């Protein structure tokens, strides 16, 4: 058997936690080898060891049969190993071209020469059907496009062992399909891929073999074709997982959030990002805003939560006009927000877990006395929430948020937002980047909040999630609502037609905005 990568008996420790406990992983040449595990199972840590970001305490790494020492990513690149990280490593105000050549620039006579690099990148882009624009600035392009830039960075460096760390966590269903095609094409060209994920459908669709980690330990390696999703999930979580969440009929109450003729101009291209949108959200229901990323959902949510000013229309919360109210006013009057970008708007990464859990409530009497923080009360609060919401971290309340896995960062945000006793929960991609166990948990929690009489506004790209837990669905396309559907009466295919703009519901014919 020819292995391109052998990681033998790898152990990596951090303060308070053994992230990788005597793990062995063997990857064959020309295969897509999935690495499956819950959030915090040690997948990203193991691949960071392979890529030279961490040095293991114990263990041996072999590349193409030869034992190697990988001290940093430059060593990994020289061995042909490239990595697309879960949170992309791109310079936002650089162009696509500049990001791809960064670190391996061609310089002649002290002057940067980009002509050959541009030609190579354009050729690679065509060869792998990656369709990028070399002169676009990173902050102006979609997340899916940014991922293509990361893939091109690996191809430009002639890497033939490619690590994809949670590559689909931030992609639309269409972008995921494209990525799967790209991965197959890479294998046809003789590359080998390690695919870190916890999405079982994607493993079934694209992987040859899968190795499973659980709580830092190696559980086993199986052939994907001969293993069911249920068997894989049980290996991953250590118990049977419920894929279909049971939910009773919604007990709908009064309107709690009313949006009328809302319009927001895009900060990127000046056109309307949200165009004359109106809808009501009622107590005791989960209303889902479905749509492909970039169709105005982000701006709509920013307006509802106070992160963005509106250019027209009104927002009423329990009958009160809150269109121009502050973020703190909305937070402290019963509107909770699980944001789309947990790093940008959800957490202060260099604060501890206990500090992050009181970001919006530290000024309440129970957490302060005459302007001084009550540390004892804050610690007690953190311990209770860690227990209740199963937030796993190396050092409990004093763990820095930055050092936690993505799924446990998300659980911390969910815990904080649910604990505020809100009337409205705005949940944007709440299960993005989470494993099946955590997804099951958050879906159950959202339905529990609904059944407590709270109003849930869900924004999601995952069609199975949209159809699985929503009571009503409205679809946004190019800043407008193009249809309102009942999840029990619509198929994934039909919903996809609405999301792509190919279909409009009755009463949602295109309207020009009136000033």
Word description of this protein:
This protein has 515 residues and is α/β, with parallel strands linked by helices. The protein folds into three domains: 3-237, P-loop containing nucleotide triphosphate hydrolases (Rossmann fold), CATH 3.40.50; 251-334 and 425-515, Rossmann fold, CATH 3.40.50.300; 344-421, no CATH class. Strands 6-9-10-3-11-12 form a six-stranded mixed β-sheet, with helices on both faces. It has a six-stranded mixed β-sheet with strand order 18-21-22-15-23-24, with helices on both faces. The longest helix has 16 residues, at 173-188. The termini are far apart.
Oligomer state of the chains in this structure: single chain
Instruction: Please give the count of helices.
Output: 17
CATH architect. name of the largest domain: 3-Layer(aba) Sandwich
Question: Helicity, in percent?
Answer: 25-40%
Task: Strand order, main sheet: write it out.
Answer: 6-9-10-3-11-12
What is the CATH class name of the largest domain? Answer: Alpha Beta
How many structural domains does the protein architecture include?
3
Shape from CA axes? globular
Q: What is the CATH topology descriptor of the largest domain?
A: Rossmann fold
Q: Quick one: biggest sheet?
A: 6 strands, mixed
Q: Over the alpha carbons, how many angstroms does the gyration radius reach?
A: 24 Å
Could you tell me the number of beta strands?
A: 24
Average of per-residue pLDDT values: 87
Portion in strands: 25-35%
Low-confidence stretches: none
**Class inferred from helices and paired strands:** alpha/beta
């Amino acid at each position: 058997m020819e292995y391109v990568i052998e990681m033998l008996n790898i152990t990596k420790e951090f303060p308070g936690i053994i992230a990788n406990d005597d793990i062995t992983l063997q990857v064959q040449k020309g295969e897509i080898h999935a690495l499956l595990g819950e959030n915090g199972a040690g997948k990203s840590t193991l691949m960071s060891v392979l890529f030279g970001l961490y040095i293991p305490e114990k263990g041996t790494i072999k590349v193409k049969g030869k034992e190697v020492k990988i001290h940093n990513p430059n060593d990994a690149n020289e061995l042909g190993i490239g990595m697309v990280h879960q949170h992309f490593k791109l310079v936002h105000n650089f162009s696509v071209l500049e990001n791809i050549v960064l670190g391996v620039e061609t310089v002649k006579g002290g002057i940067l020469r980009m002509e050959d690099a541009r030609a190579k990148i354009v050729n690679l882009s065509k060869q792998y059907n990656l369709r990028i624009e070399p002169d676009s600035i990173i902050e102006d392009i979609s997340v899916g496009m940014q991922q293509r830039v990361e893939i091109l960075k690996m191809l430009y460096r002639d890497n033939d062992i490619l690590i994809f760390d949670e590559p689909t966590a931030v992609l639309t269903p269409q972008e995921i399909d494209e990525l799967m095609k790209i991965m197959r094409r890479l294998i046809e060209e003789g590359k080998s891929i390690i695919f870190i994920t916890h999405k079982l459908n994607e493993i079934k669709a694209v992987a040859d073999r899968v190795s499973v980690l659980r709580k830092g330990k190696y559980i086993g390696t199986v052939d994907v074709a001969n293993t069911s999703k249920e068997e894989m999930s049980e290996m991953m979580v250590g118990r049977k997982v419920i894929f279909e969440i049971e939910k009773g009929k919604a007990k709908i109450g009064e309107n709690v959030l009313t949006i009328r003729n809302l319009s927001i101009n895009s900060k990127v291209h000046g056109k309307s990002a949200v165009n004359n949108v109106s809808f009501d959200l009622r107590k005791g229901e989960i209303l889902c805003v479905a749509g492909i990323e970039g169709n105005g959902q982000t701006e709509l949510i920013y307006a509802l939560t106070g992160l963005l000013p509106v250019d027209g229309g009104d927002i009423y919360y329990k009958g009160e006009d809150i269109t121009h109210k502050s973020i703190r006013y909305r937070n402290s009057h019963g509107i909770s927000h699980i944001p789309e970008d947990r790093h940008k708007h959800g957490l202060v990464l260099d604060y501890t877990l206990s500090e992050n859990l009181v970001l919006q409530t530290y000024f309440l009497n129970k957490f302060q006395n005459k302007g001084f923080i009550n540390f004892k009360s804050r610690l007690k609060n953190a311990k209770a929430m860690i227990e209740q919401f199963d937030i796993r971290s190396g050092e409990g309340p004093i763990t820095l948020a930055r050092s936690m896995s993505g799924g446990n960062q998300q659980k911390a945000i969910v815990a904080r937002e649910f604990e505020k006793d809100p009337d409205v929960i705005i949940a944007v991609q709440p299960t993005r980047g989470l494993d099946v166990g955590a997804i099951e948990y958050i879906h159950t929690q959202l339905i529990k909040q609904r059944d407590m009489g709270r109003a849930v506004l869900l924004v999601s790209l995952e069609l199975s999630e949209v159809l699985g837990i929503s009571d009503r669905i409205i679809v946004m396309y190019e800043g407008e609502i193009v249809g309102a559907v009942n999840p029990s009466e619509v198929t994934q295919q039909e919903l996809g037609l609405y999301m792509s703009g190919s279909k409009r519901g009755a009463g949602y014919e295109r309207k020009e905005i009136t000033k």
